[in-house]
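INPUT
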Amino acid sequence: MNNFEYKNPVKIIFGKGTIPSVGKELPESARILMTYGGGSIKKNGVYNQVKEALKNFELFEFGGIEPNPHYETCMKAIELIKKENITYLLSVGGGSVLDATKFIAAGALYGGDPWDFLSQRYIVNVEKALPIGAVLTLPATGSEMNGNAVITKAATREKMAFGSPLVMPQFSILDPECIFTLPDRQVANGVVDAFVHVLEQYLTYPVNSPIQDRFAESILTTLIEEGPKVLANRNDYDAAANFMWSATMALNGLIATGVPQDWATHMIGHELTAFHGIDHARTLAIVLPGIMNIKRENKKEKILQFGQRIWGISSGTDEERINRAIEKTVQFFESLGVPTTLSGYEVPEETIGKISARFKERKSKLGEKEDIDYKQVADILKDRL
Ligand code: NZQ
Ligand code: ZN
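OUTPUT
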């Protein structure tokens, strides 16, 4: 096992009827800005629950944050924060609202253009940020218990990530009943996103980490069992609760401790969203099987372990087992209604050249061994035509 440091200070408040407790988590003197998306929270009663719980607080609102949140939108929120002397941010929504809120929290206290956090990641670091709390309405990203955020600059069609422990929420409220109003597409996206998060931290190479491997496998198995139950019956509270906690556990840093991590699927997937607006999770469903196929040598031992422990594949040559593990993964995504090829989303072949050119320009080396260059990015995408 590799050396690691691990600290996760996010307080999780989980369960039915927990949203009204938001008032107890916020300082009485806070000037709060509640951030939200396109209006789902007004339809499902979450907005009213939060407003009621915070009726004695100084509460301002900023709505209209779009999925794959835009830098341009966040900058408007930063203006409002400065004008109203906001001291606390409360994100009410899915991963997009929360990611935007993280960017806003850091950007509001930064002297320069906050896009620097993304364009010069690891060079320009967040040094301070406003405190954040979250009411999560969509299990998928794990943003509720991590310090990452992904923001899109609409003007240049760039989608990039940044991270800092300073933008981890102070608390996140997870009421699984929020899932009851999710459309099928968002449930399927959430299952696929969480599943791929686990694989980005698992399908690498062995470092003798049986505890992390089994944590990861337990999340995968739970998603395979519970995801279809949530899709079939949106009011199944137990399935919703198990799904929600799985998605949080998939990306709160725990299963990444002491093991190599890949993230090439995400990096390539972000470009598909940037160019074609494809939902985040759907881009992962396209790219992951390509990575498993093209990087089958690098990942051999872990793909075999995944095949055996998750899909029960225990016979055949190594090549046959790897093929079968890829097939089973594709079948799982497709069974949730998520297409797994570029043609399934009408992405033209010329996009592959455009994406590859971006990685060439950035001199990117992706993957756990940093050996995926722009040419291999093109191979991976060609594998998914
Ligand atoms: O905007 P509203 O009206 O709220 O509607 C949203 C949105 O249209 C809707 N929704 C959310 N909760 C709902 C609901 N509809 C009905 N009932 C509810 N309870 O769902 C739509 C999608 O929401 P969004 O927040 O965009 O989805 P998700 O949580 O999947 O977030 C995706 C974003 O997170 C980033 C992705 O790149 C993408 O931009 N990621 C963030 C990560 C992180 N911070 O660690 C990691 C991930 O890998 C991912 O990259
Ligand atoms: Zn993701």
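end of record. The chain has two domains: 11-177, 184-382.
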